[in-house]
Amino acid sequence: MLRYVPDAVKEEFVNIGVLMIEPGTNGSGFADVSFTKDWRRVHCLDPQADVEVLESLEREIQAHLRVGNDRAALLKRINDSFSNLIQVSPIKACLAEQPAKELAMLTRLYTESSRGGGDVRVIGGRQKILATMREAFEEVNIWGLLQHGISVVPYTKPGDPFKFDFGYRVGDTLKLFHAASLKNNVDQGIMLASRYPAIAEKMRSHEDPELRVSPLLTAIVEDGLKDGDPLMHFVNQTMKEAKITVATSSRMPEIAETARRELKA
Question: Does the pLDDT of residue 122 top 50, yes or no?
Answer without folding.
Answer: no
